[in-house]
Structures are given as C-alpha cells and as structure tokens.
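Example (one chain per record):
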Amino acid sequence: MRVVIAEDSVLLREGVQRLLADEGIETVAAVENGDGLLDAVTEHRPDLCVVDVRMPPTFTDEGLRAAIECRRRYPGLPVLVLSQYVEERYAVELLAGGASGVGYLLKERVADVKEFVDAVRRVADGGTSIDHEVITQLMVRSKKSPVDSLTPREREVLGLMAQGLSNTAIAATLVVSDGAVEKHVGNIFAKLGLEPSNSEHRRVRAVLAYLDS
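Predicted structure:
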C-alpha cells in the first residue's frame, strides 16, 4: 500500500509515517499543507491519503478542502481524515460525495496502533471508518429523521456499521449471533427505505442516512 500523509505537525507526521512503515505500508510523500497534498496525489496516485482537517495558512478546513478536491479529481481515492476535535459538519461534508473509501478519526486514535492501522486498511480497501465519538454526537443531534424509527439496538448496529464493521465483527462486539445482526441490519434497511440497488451499496447508503440524520 502506498500512502500520502498531509499533516502540519512534524511530530505527528513523522510518527504516522513510522507507524505505517512498521506495518509494511509505504509513505510516498509527507506534506504540510493542502497544496502539497494535491501535488503529491497528482504525482504519486497513492492508494490512500491520511489528511489533517486543519492546516496552514488559516488552520480551519484547508485539509478537508484539499481532500475533497483530491476525490473530485480522482473519484474513489480513499481518504482518511484526522481531526483534533469532533467537527460534525466536516464528517458529513466529506461523506456527502460518497461514503466509499472514506474515514474520519480523532487524532487520539493514532495512539491505538491496532485501531488506527485497521482503519487505514479498511478505508484503503474502499470501506468506511467513522470515529465513534463523531457517531455519538451525530446520533444525539437529530430529532426528526428516519433513524428515529430505529430501536436502540438497531441504532447501535447502525453506529457500528458506520465505523466500518462487518456483520461478523458487529456480532462479536455486541456478543450476539450473526443471525441476530443480519436481522437487525435487514430491519434497518427496511425502516430507512433502502431497497436493493445495483448502483449503490445499501450499507453505504445507510451510513449516509445515519450521518445526515
């Protein structure tokens, strides 16, 4: 796997690069701003970009804007965004262009090597990985949406789906059978009005409905 890192903090940038190297993941470019990210992606066409939301010069949303522009230029480019704090609109905006191959994690997750590397590999493979703190805040924000019709257990299952977990992984997390999870997932699809589609995976559509709720 070939990765581009965009992070203005030298310590974190080099730390992530070393962590990935220990896992056999090559960093082809490590840059400190949005323009550098765009140039690196154009030059290297990486398998994944790891991007800080806030970078120079204003330290607001330069990283996010650059990540969105990269996905516009190269549709399907996997992007894992790192943020110091939970910023809901950034998560929703990133996913608005399609939830395939996107992730949003708090920077503190980098300290959990296994969790971070799992997220890197999942997003690079076209999956999703949304920080559970973001999911928690999004769940309590909405008052009127189809998600409100879900039972507490179904909302819990959908939250784990948003983190990128498979049915088997959800079953292990909740200590229930695979069949129970499959039933909950079926109920979620039905309540959200997600009929089978050849063009868009229902799990992705459910996650989008969840994050936009």
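Caption: The longest strand covers residues 26-31.
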